[in-house]
Amino acid sequence: xxxxxxxxxxxxxxxxxxxxxxxxxxxxxxxxxxxxxxxxxxxxxxxxxxxxxxxxxxxxxxxxxxxxxxxxxxxxxxxxxxxxxxxxxxxxxxxxxxxxxxxxxxxxxxxxxxxxxxxxxxxxxxxxxxxxxxxxxxxxxxxxxxxxxxxxxxxxxxxxxxxxxxxxxxxxxxxxxxxxxxxxxxxxxxxxxxxxxxxxxxxxxxxxxxxxxxxxxxxxx
Length: 221
Prior knowledge:
The protein is α+β, with helices and mostly antiparallel strands. 24% of the residues lie in helices and 27% in strands. 25% of the residues are buried.
């Protein structure tokens, strides 16, 4: 691993806006062209149209969601005595910092959002993570109500291949969980292939299979 891969990083998490679409398309294409997916999304226009459904509008419609800054320390690996494999030390976790900013007149307190189960997000939204203004991670998600509150479904999650293996994905996901929890979202779910690295990644981040449930689909057009 190169020296740069061992350097600590400062991530800034924001809601994705239409200004981020071009960079998000490039990141999306690069991420899914890499192993193990090997998928080619050559038509940037189609990807841009897809991601634009998740982008926040030009105006600041959701002042409740402010930037987060996260210090990402490269993960430390320790020997697991049971498996005999090198695993990430659970004590080497990212640190999340709230970026200070003035409260807008239209803001609602965290207590109010929790009591009214108000998410402060559009039904479709996305978060991006930046390092020195470079977009390095993307997460597209959607909201839906359920019997116990509001849940978020992670539809897309990708990290720039050049930043993978440095703790960026784990820190990014942790920051998203914090932001959504503050909005009254009390569950997060995702669908992934358990045999690929995505399944292992979510499992290490505390996501567990839902018993007696499977993802089914039917193409209508």
